[in-house]
């Protein structure tokens, strides 16, 4: 009876042993996936095509070991993600690596926390100013290069600093992270980017009607105040453009609020219509402005005396520039310049004039007013920028955050434009009359400017990634509607030479993985232990003969039959 149960008990013991060994293999295989050191948000370098040519980061998924700038000479980085803090960035090294197309598994640029739009405040101003030019140069390099690997930005924190310190230590010891040696592994499990199909642009138009007297059959003249609200930068998910052109949007909203107070009373309503335009597609040759203007009927277009476009007026010291396409001798151009100059002199400011002819055959549009000039409408751009920006530059980059914008500069810009417009509308040119005097009911409201500047400085606004009913677009429409008689919204498709791709942000997982040698050694030790344990149990419970019989070759089938 006992002998008949013996094989069954041994079989159960073997099955238990196999289960333990299988579990061991599973645990060893999962060592790499179970030791997560940290996880945080990262922001991908923009990916786009211009006239069919690829630019930006062409991949998104990442699964490589990490290395620092202290990697040993001659090491293969084709399966390595390189971590570079902005404070340690050598722009020459990065430029050579990209231009020479050296192999790299991925690039992670660590930005100081003070640059995050989530932190706010104005601390460590000197440190930020010191890095501004470096970051601007890096951004120009990245957005105009075709990079065949994932490039991400992230903000420094304690977890990434700790991991980077360990990585540097290993690199300095000549032990870079590999599958053999172990180390830190960076994983971004995301799908590969897809083209953004039919990206939309939304233009918002506000209208304040002037006072029309009885028997006046002629249409009232119109003055347009315009600002482009979208941005472009190396990382779309971080492109908030506090100055370019958040400052212009804030100024337009405050100007519309001030004139709504004047126009709400028939006694102070001017004999000019005021047209307010919040346009999209600014970084892309002001494509939205072009479509908005072409939607005007001829009567409205001919009624516009002139347009003032507001662009980057939030970080100037004492001088603004008026950019025009028509000759300075033009009557309307002289009127605009003299009106602004007179008010600027009273405010102890300076206003300069820059004339640049447009080339109708060249599709490149450097300033928003040039779209008006192409349709023979007099217009000017007021900006702190004295030099014409290059394509896709000065459009809300990584360094264009709340900390770099001066609220006082925007307040002075609003007073300059509002006073100049009011004197023109009410016929007070050349007179030292302050319509929007401080401490009066018509004074510029710094708190209003500050609140909207805070909102804009936390809202990325890259046009291809803003939907028609985006909460930010709806908020702009609602705010403008509170200051004007009528608001219209125009939805258009972004057309032209640009194609954009999605996947602008992701979640980075950092794993601290053991080396393959360690895994094999651990497996060998545990396997040996289980074999010894099993042998001991069999000998003590069944005897040495049973243990030896396990390893004997079973008799053949023929022998059994005989």
Automatic annotation (TrEMBL):
It holds the Pfam family Nicastrin. Keywords: Endoplasmic reticulum, Glycoprotein, Membrane, Signal, Transmembrane, Transmembrane helix. One of its GO terms (cellular component) is endoplasmic reticulum membrane. GO terms for biological process: regulation of signal transduction. It comes from Gossypium hirsutum (Upland cotton). It comes from the Eukaryota. This is Nicalin. The chain crosses the membrane at residues 520-544. It is found in: Endoplasmic reticulum membrane. Belongs to the nicastrin family. It is a single-pass membrane protein.
């Amino acid at each position: 009876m006992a002998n008949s149960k013996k094989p069954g008990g041994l079989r159960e013991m073997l099955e238990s042993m196999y289960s333990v060994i299988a579990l061991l293999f599973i645990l060893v295989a999962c060592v790499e996936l179970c030791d997560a050191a940290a996880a945080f948000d990262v922001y991908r370098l923009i990916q786009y095509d211009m006239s069919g040519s690829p630019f930006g980061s062409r991949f998104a998924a990442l699964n490589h070991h990490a290395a620092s700038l202290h990697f040993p000479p001659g090491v293969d980085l084709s399966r390595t993600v390189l971590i570079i803090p902005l404070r340690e960035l050598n722009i020459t090294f990065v430029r050579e690596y990209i231009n020479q197309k050296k192999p790299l598994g991925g690039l992670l640029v660590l930005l100081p926390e003070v640059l995050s739009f989530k932190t706010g405040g104005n601390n460590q101003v000197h440190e930020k100013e010191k890095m501004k030019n470096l970051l601007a140069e890096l951004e120009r390099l990245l957005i105009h290069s075709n990079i065949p690997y994932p490039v991400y930005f992230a903000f420094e924190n304690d977890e990434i600093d700790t991991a980077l310190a360990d990585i540097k230590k290993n690199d300095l010891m000549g032990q870079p992270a590999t599958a053999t040696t172990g180390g830190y592994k960076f994983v971004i499990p995301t799908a590969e980017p897809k083209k953004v199909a039919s990206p939309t642009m939304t233009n918002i138009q506000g209208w304040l009607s002037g006072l029309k007297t009885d028997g006046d059959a002629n249409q009232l003249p119109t003055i347009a105040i315009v600002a482009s609200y979208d941005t472009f930068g190396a990382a779309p998910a971080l492109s908030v453009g506090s100055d370019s052109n958040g400052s212009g949007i804030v100024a337009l909203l405050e100007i519309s609020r001030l004139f709504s107070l004047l126009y709400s009373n028939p006694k102070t309503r001017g004999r000019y219509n005021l047209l307010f335009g919040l346009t999209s597609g600014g970084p892309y040759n002001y494509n939205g402005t072009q479509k908005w203007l072409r939607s005007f009927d001829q009567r409205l277009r001919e009624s516009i005396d002139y347009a003032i476009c507001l662009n980057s007026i939030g970080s100037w010291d004492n001088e603004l520039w008026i950019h025009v396409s028509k000759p300075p001798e033009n009557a309307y151009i002289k009127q605009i310049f003299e009106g602004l100059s007179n008010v600027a002199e009273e405010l102890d400011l300076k206003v300069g004039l820059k004339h640049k002819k447009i080339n109708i055959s060249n599709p490149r549009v450097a300033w928003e007013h040039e779209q008006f000039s192409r349709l023979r409408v007099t217009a000017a751009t007021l900006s702190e920028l004295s030099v014409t920006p290059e394509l896709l530059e000065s459009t809300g980059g990584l360094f264009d955050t709340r900390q770099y914008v001066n609220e006082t500069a925007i307040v002075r810009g609003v007073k300059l434009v509002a006073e100049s417009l009011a004197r023109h509308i009410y016929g007070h040119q050349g007179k030292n009359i302050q319509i929007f005097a401080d401490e009066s009911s018509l004074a510029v409201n710094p708190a209003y400017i500050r609140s909207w500047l805070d909102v804009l400085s936390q809202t990325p606004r890259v046009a291809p990634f803003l939907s028609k009913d985006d909460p930010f677009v709806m908020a702009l429409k609602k705010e403008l509607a509170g200051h004007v008689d009528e608001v219209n919204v125009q939805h258009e498709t972004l057309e032209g030479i640009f194609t954009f791709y999605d996947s602008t942000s992701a979640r980075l997982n950092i794993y601290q993985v053991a080396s393959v040698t360690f895994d094999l050694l651990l497996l060998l030790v545990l396997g040996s232990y289980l074999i010894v344990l099993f042998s001991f149990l069999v000998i003590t419970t069944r005897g040495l003969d049973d243990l030896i019989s396990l390893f004997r070759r079973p008799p053949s089938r023929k022998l059994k039959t005989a």
